[in-house]
Amino acid sequence: MKYIDLHVHSSASDGTLSPAKVVRLASEKQLAAIALTDHDTLAGIPEANKESDILKEEGTFIQIIPGTEISVSYRKKDIHILGLFVDTNSGQLYDSLEQARIRREERNHKMTANLRTAGIDITVDKLKEAEGDAVLTRAHFAKYMVEHGYVKTNQDAFTKYLHDDSPYYVPREYLSPEEAISLIHSAGGLAVIAHPLLYKFTLPEVEAMVAYLKDYGLDGVETIYSANTGFDEGHIRRIANKYDLAMTGGSDFHGKNKPDIQIGTGRGNLKVPYEILEKLRARL
C-alpha cells in the first residue's frame, strides 16, 4: 500500500528543513505524495517541485500537492485552515498572504521590543539572520532564546515568555474563516480544517465549528493526525461523515522544531493511505 502526508512544513515557514530536503526525506520514506503546507505562504512550493523533478530524473516519483496553512480567528482562538491543491499563481491568494506577512512582520517587531524590556537581546533582524526568508513564528522566537541561553527548551520559552497571556505577547490580526475558505476556493483549492481537536474545544464545540465552517464552503476535515489518541480519529470521522466532508491526514512535520514527529509516520503509528488523495482529487 502507498502512503502520503498532507500536512508538512519546511523552512519557508517554521520547519527546519528546506523544501528540497523535505521532499528528499519524504522520498526516502517512500511516500507517494506530500502536501507542502507552510504557514501563510506559498514560497516553498517552487523549490519542492524542482526537487520532485530531480527525483523523477533519478527514477523516483513523488507527487507534490501545493498548499498552505492559513491562520484565522474563530471564537477568539487561532485556528488553521489548510488549502490543498491551490494554484500558486493565484493573485488573490498571493496578495492576501502577502498582507498577512506584512501584519506578521509588524507584530514581530512589537514582540521583540517587548522581549527586550525583559532583558532578552532580540530583534527581527537577528531572527532573520538565523532564519533567512522563513515566515517568522513564535517557534523561531523560542529557538533563538534556547540558542542564546535565555531558556533551556522551546517549551520553557513559551511557558515564560510566549504564551497567549504573556505580557510580552502581541496578538495577531487574522483573516476570518470565511475569508480564508473563499481565498482557497478562488485559487482552485480545497479548504480543510486542520487538527480540529487541538483547539481545546469540547466535542460538541468541535462539531459546531465544523458545521459553521461547512456553511461557508469547508471541503474537508483533517481526520488522521499525529496527536490523535484513543477514539480521536473515530470522533472526527463521525463528524466528517455527518457533514459530508472529505477526510485528510498528515503528520504536521516541522523537522527539529517538533522532533517527536516524523514525516509520514508522525509519532510512529501514523498511516495516511493513498486512497485519501484519490478521494480528494474527486472532490476537485
Automatic annotation (TrEMBL):
Q: What is this protein called?
A: Phosphatase
Q: Which PANTHER family match?
A: EXONUCLEASE, POLYMERASE_HISTIDINOL PHOSPHATASE N-TERMINAL DOMAIN-CONTAINING PROTEIN
Q: Which organism is it from?
A: Anaerocolumna cellulosilytica
One molecular function GO term is:
5'-3' RNA exonuclease activity
- According to the record, the signal peptide region is none
This protein's source sits in the domain of life called Bacteria
Species lineage, top-down?
Answer: Bacteria, Bacillati, Bacillota, Clostridia, Lachnospirales
